[in-house]
Amino acid sequence: MTLRCSLSASIELVILLLRLSVALGDDNDAGKLISGLREQSIVGCMTTSCHGSNVQAAEKWQRAAKIWFDQDPHAQAYTVLLNETSARIVSRLINEELTPSSQKYLDILETKCVSCHASESAPRSQRVLGADCQVCHGSANAWGSEHYSSEWKARGRSRFDDSKKLDVESLVSRAEICSSCHVGELNRKGSNQEDRFDREVDHRLMAAGHPPMYFDFESFLRRYPVHWDTKDEEVGKGASIGFERWRIGKITSAIRRLKLLAARAERATGQSTSPHDWPELTEYNCTSCHHALVQPSWRQTRGANAIADWDDWSVSQLDSAIRDQSVVEMTAQIRSLKDLIEPIDPNPNQVAMKAETLRRWLEVELDQVPSTKENAFEVMLPKLQAQAENGARFRSWESAAQWYIATRVLAEGLRMDVTPDLVPLLYEDPFGGDLKTWTPVGIKEFNTPSQFHPDMLHNYQRELVRQLRKRP
């Protein structure tokens, strides 16, 4: 396999490496970085004969490296750690003023950040490439010449069995890979089955300035700079492709969050050698504490818990994503888990057991997700329509946002025009431009306003019901 990169990508890569060499110091010059880059075969993936084509008329998979390098935010995942904002976060976290050029700062990044912000398959000299191809596709060394042979492709999904190649063609597998970083994962193994650092944004890190982990698989995919052929994803789904992605992402993210909760609870039982807070405050709705102190308060009228509501971002609207015959059982299990985690001093052993039980139960549900020939949209439509007709009730901003996300996918699948202007304080797309260059325009995704009130969705809900009733 040739190592000739496309000219544009090569120049940009060298510039990026030179910039990082300045931050790292003389001991890590760009020459060493480029030499280390060649130790892994990712450069081979970016050649003009493979995924590095600059020809606009070429297939997306042929231009994948160029699209990723130019537009994908994952390409900047490590370099963003070297800016002033990240330096303030790290300095607050350890209560010591550090600069990105210091060795201590870079060492902290290795222990706290790179498991999500870079590729574990790459040596330290390649952190500049951020969360590169290997994070989603598996080690570059595993993708030999056989992967572009007709025989290998003819094997279908079985070609990923017992392989270090990750199957991102599967929406379920893709959602699991994304949620590992964007939701979190403890007690994990790295690509070489060696002990690796956990992926966790806890309340200490958030208090230092890290953004909260409000992840929605479908919302992320709808804005993602696509560098692959999507026609196979849409077979049999038509307008409901967004709903299928939402449904799979909803169940998968809930499984990942429950696994994270169970691991946090087990860590609090005294088996961990390092101290951690319990209960971990990111397990509760942010807006339970971060809200305006006004009288009268809608929180008082709805009834408040002793501490805060369990964060229902991951489990809210699950009843619209699973089979009808499973809703009653799932609702009871969620209620039981909420009763265990919301007291002032939740028992970590009980929380861990209940979270594990619910997680395993949802994994069975995930196995029941219809095949691509079935239309889950028509199956789930009556549930969301009934919620809209009956008037959805929200205990928090998080549950309101989840309801909006689900019904927005519903409205789009039905070709309905329900304008986002009817949804104040639930911003979604802070990245402007048709090319999706991920340039922030000043509005954070899924803003959590302290002044949120459930009635803010009233006009949107009324318009949604009006248009649903007009359907033939």
In short:
This protein is mainly alpha-helical and 472 residues long.
Spatial shape: globular
Structural class: mainly alpha
Distance between the termini: 57 Å
Portion of residues in helices? 40-55%
Write the layout of secondary structure elements.
Blueprint: H1 7-24, H2 30-39, H3 42-45, H4 64-71, H5 84-94, H6 103-112, H7 114-117, H8 133-137, H9 150-153, H10 171-182, H11 203-208, H12 217-223, H13 241-271, H14 298-302, H15 327-341, H16 348-367, H17 376-390, H18 397-413, H19 458-469
What does this structure look like?
There is one protein chain. With 472 residues, this protein is an all-alpha fold. It has a domain at 217-224 and 235-469. The chain is built from 19 helices and no strands. The longest helix has 31 residues, at 241-271. The protein is globular.
Any key phrases for this structure?
mainly alpha; globular; 0% strand; 472 residues; 45% helix; 19 helices
